[in-house]
Amino acid sequence: MPKVKRLSPLVIKRIAAGEVVERPASVVKELVENSLDADSSRIVVRVEDGGKRLIEVSDNGTGMSEEDALLAVERYTTSKIESPSDLEAITTLGFRGEALYAISSVSMFVMTTKREEDDVGTKVVVHGGVLKEVSRVPRERGTTVSVRNLFFNLRARRKFLRSKRTEESHVRRVLMEYAVCCPHVEFEYYEDGQPYFLLPRASVEDRLSTLLGDVIDEKALEDDGLVLKLFLVKTARFQGDIFFFVNKRAVWERALFASIRRQLKQKFLSWELPAVVLFAEVNPAMIDVNVHPSKREVKFKEREKLFEKVLSMISEKKSFLSDASGTSYPFRWKKPDRGQESTQLTLETGGGEEALSYRFVGEYAGVFLLYEDLESGDLVVVDKHAFHERLIFDAILGDDAGKQPVFIPFPGLKELACYEKLFSFLGFDVDFESEVVLSVPSWARGREESVISELCFLMKNEEVSDLSHEELARKACRAAVKAGDTTSYVDAGFVIKVLQRRGFDLSCPHGRPVVVRLKKSDFESFFKRRR
Ligand SMILES: Nc1ncnc2c1ncn2[C@@H]1O[C@H](COP(=O)(O)OP(=O)(O)O)[C@@H](O)[C@H]1O
Ligand SMILES: [Mg+2]
Q1: Nearest CA to ligand 1 atom 11
Q2: What ligand has the least distance to the C-alpha of 36?
Q3: Which ranges of the chain have pLDDT less than 50?
Q4: Pick the CATH number of 205-315 from 3.40.20.10, 1.20.120.530, 1.10.10.10, 3.30.230.10
Q5: Ligand 1, residues at Cβ distance < 6 Å
Q6: Nearest to 55, CA basis, from 167, 182, 146
């Protein structure tokens, strides 16, 4: 690895300023990025107490000389760029030379490191920005950074750290992202000494199947220096989740994500929505990663073109395995996967028997499903809207076993922190401080963003705090149904199975009937076939 150097004031001026260290997950992100930039093939991460007590990242990468190790903990020192023009085409994950400085200023920091060619390693200890010790230590090639008591010297910041569970889920997300995008690297992750994942080196498909679920479709596109790879993953825990990597960097692109989800919903039932993993390799000169301190956002020079390509890949018919071919009876009953958390709405229908005694006749006026009862000959009419509201309502008032972990940043949540209890009653876990939704109930899966925005709208505009649980569930359920055309996911086979199991006398939470039965004998007398 090239030597660590101090950046010139000219470059420093052009670096997007801001806090690099917000919470344990941001420390993990910076340290793992350093390990990846150092060509490590094995990275071990440990956190204790959600990272508040300890964050440790060890790698077997290039390591540093003593001189470099000492320089690296200073501000604006990096081996990755030199001149302002280097900022135009960044090929490493780091480049600002700030992370080790920032981390060691707000923690009790110990780094040991050794290069292949050195006989002995170097240990650097920094407490709250003050260099405490430099010594020689034996170690293997590579680098270990231990960060204890994050923000011990900034009490206000320390107070803002959330519960162990919340901080852990942020760390998990960061590690998941790097683990997905670097399957050639072995990852180990421990929480309080317990292994959370141990990932051997693998192919992309195998890594995805370990972390998310089986790959059900795969597409690639190469055009004009742009390489796109798309994987759809059948998953129980990450339905509708989108992982987007640009040159191995995890990037949030809300608008693109919303369009991708919209496209997928035309192909998949909400409870079958896959996770999407999208890799884009672009010429580094075509993107600007120097726009945000945490490098979560990038500016694309040809944004529209790239997004169009991604969406056309998703809408392309040929290779998706989904066989929603538009037949009049598209329902495929699948037994839930073994080991899948049994929380999906689909499971309400129970086992795998066919709904033989009802024949689906068709749909009328966009909301009514018509069935012939093969035993009595009656015509059974189901109001899809009412049916769907009922399902959601029951799910809200039921237990919260249906929670699914997600990671959805949602600006504006902070001001709704006073509704924490309501969110949690409805089945959402929200980290208000960082404005991220951490889990959603199964009834909101697949359209979580619009459901959350409807709920936010409701909470901002109505006096919801003193409603009874039932009234609240009724309102939330209306918001959920309003959030997009949810009825298009209610398909005929599913509906009849639920009704067979639950009884045909359901009403929607607002009191309207879900099912109306028209007798065969009435039809016969309409048409004077009967005397
Ligand atoms: N795990 C590591 N292995 C080898 N070198 C490292 C490691 N972590 C940091 N370094 C060196 O320290 C320098 C400073 O790191 P950092 O403060 O994160 O800034 P940046 O990554 O932006 O260059 C890096 O440029 C790199 O040369
Ligand atoms: Mg770095």
Answers
A1: 72
A2: 1
A3: 319-355, 400
A4: 3.30.230.10
A5: 1, 4, 30, 34-35, 38, 59, 61-64, 72, 77-80, 94-101, 143
A6: 146
